[in-house]
Amino acid sequence: MSDLKKASGKCAKQKGRRLQLIIILSDRDIPTTPSEQSAKVDEEIAEYLEARATLDGVQPDLEHYAEEAFDLMEALVREMRKRGVNVWLANEKHLAKMRRREQCGS
Q: Residue 72: which residues within 8 A CB-CB, separation 6 or more?
């Protein structure tokens, strides 16, 4: 049992191993307004959903699916930055929320 879980006393058992992954996204600065970037996110969501829909088919194209997933991640991060979000801090807060949920079995 992790020290964090021992300290919290809220959870009786540890769930599986935690995946730790560093994803490096493009640092291209694409000159768009926040609303133009939001439209790009909408476009990438549609492309991602289309690629995901093929996964249950006879010949799923995992490479295309992964490509669209990363395109969506890039568009979302770019949108957050265009709107003034500190992405690093937002990610840290998200991870803290996920750790709290894990402590409580959510």
A: 41, 44, 45, 47, 48
Question: How many other C-beta atoms lie within 10 A of the C-beta of residue 63?
Answer: 9
SS (H, E, C) 3-52: HHHHHHCCCCCCCCCCCCCCCCCCCCCCCCCHHHHHHHHHHHHHHHHHHH
pLDDT, one tens digit per residue, over 81-105 is 999 999 999 999 998 998 888 887 7
Whole-angstrom distance, CA of residue 51 vs CA of residue 69: 9
Look up the pTM and report it: 0.74
Task: Give yes or no for a contact between 64 and 54, defined as CB atoms under 8 angstroms apart.
Answer: yes
Question: Which residue type occupies 32?
Answer: T
